[in-house]
Write a structure and sequence with these properties.
Number of helices: 8
Number of strands: 18
Distance between the termini: 22 Å
Radius of gyration: 22 Å
CATH superfamily of the largest domain: Pseudouridine synthase
Number of domains: 3
CATH topology of the largest domain: Pseudouridine synthase
Structural class: alpha+beta
CATH architecture of the largest domain: 2-Layer Sandwich
């Protein structure tokens, strides 16, 4: 007999304003306990020294995490000039120093070189796998970690302020897989100096914004009343950019059973033809999300079925 999963069948998204010093894993665990949910996951890791938007999926919303992570992310961050650190942020040890401090004009002239598609080498202290282990585990043991550069996209990069000679503050909107720590390191080198990211705050992940975020302290203060559920967003929130198609009950049943479905209504078949092969679809029935499906040979093939 299968072991019964502990907790309640809670489904949806909580947009947490992650506090400084807490890992994303601990944050997910804290939210899961507050909602007494059976399962939970997050839509994009934030380093312990970063704050801001951490979308946390509960229940069946965990099946939509990959779609949340594909969305563009926005950050506000500061670079501390003159110090290279082992982790490319203020957590690491100082490994090299430089006296040069770039001017406003030099910084603004360098920014266009870091927008669009660029090649970026991830930080040695990252969660990427190297030889079956996380890169940061090997780096912490003092092992040499060599991560190959990869192509990332930076849609915008703007200088916000220069509070003093040692610091500059920025805002960036980036695509999946971009490391702000690496961006700070590389921008400093392009300006003929060294640098690391001293503060980092994420303000948006796809459809999830800072305005919707709640702190862990405020969420916990709501206790076990219905209060926390007022901050639970529908699991479809991560799928706003995916077209929806309403199915009949019979069609929904076949899709739930893993069967390919060719909709009966001519209008539905016309929509499938218009959207084209490979397009992802939100298949619904009534008010419920039935599955994430994909158009294949003019029909709907289930990709992730929702148990709601």
């Amino acid at each position: 007999m299968a072991r019964k999963r502990r907790g309640n069948p809670v489904h949806g998204w909580v947009i947490l304003d992650k506090p400084l010093g807490m890992s994303s894993t601990r944050a997910v665990g804290a939210v899961r306990r507050l909602f007494e949910a059976q399962k939970a996951g997050h839509g994009g890791t934030l380093d312990p020294l970063a704050t801001g938007v951490l979308p946390i999926a509960l229940g069946e919303a965990t099946k939509t995490v990959p779609f949340a992570m594909e969305g563009r992310k926005a950050y506000r961050f500061a670079i501390r000039w003159g110090e290279r650190r082992s982790t490319d942020d203020s957590e690491g040890a100082v490994v090299a120093t430089a006296d040069r401090r770039p001017s406003r004009a030099e910084i603004e002239a360098a920014l266009p070189g870091f927008t669009g598609e660029i090649r970026q080498r991830p930080p040695e202290y990252s969660a990427l796998h190297v030889g079956g282990e996380r890169a940061y585990d090997r780096a912490r043991r003092g092992e040499s970690v060599v991560l190959a550069p990869r192509t990332v996209r930076i849609d915008s990069l703007r200088l916000l302020a220069i509070p003093d000679l040692d610091h500059a503050e920025f805002e960036a909107e980036v695509g999946k897989g971009t490391y702000i720590r690496a961006l700070g390191r590389d921008l400093a080198e392009a300006l003929g100096t060294l640098g690391h990211v001293s503060t980092l705050r994420r303000v948006r992940v796809g459809p999830f914004t800072e305005a919707r975020a709640i702190s862990l302290e405020n969420l916990a203060s709501l206790g076990h009343s219905p209060g926390p559920f007022g901050h639970l967003l529908p699991l479809e929130t991560a799928l706003d950019d995916i077209p929806a198609l309403a199915l009949t009950e019979a069609e929904a049943t076949r899709l739930r059973c893993g069967q390919t479905v060719l909709p009966l209504r001519p209008s539905d078949r016309a929509l499938i033809l218009e959207l084209g092969e490979g397009q992802r679809i939100r298949a619904t029935c009534g008010e419920k999300l039935v599955a994430l499906a994909e158009i294949a040979a003019g029909a709907l093939r289930p990709v992730r079925v929702m148990n709601l």
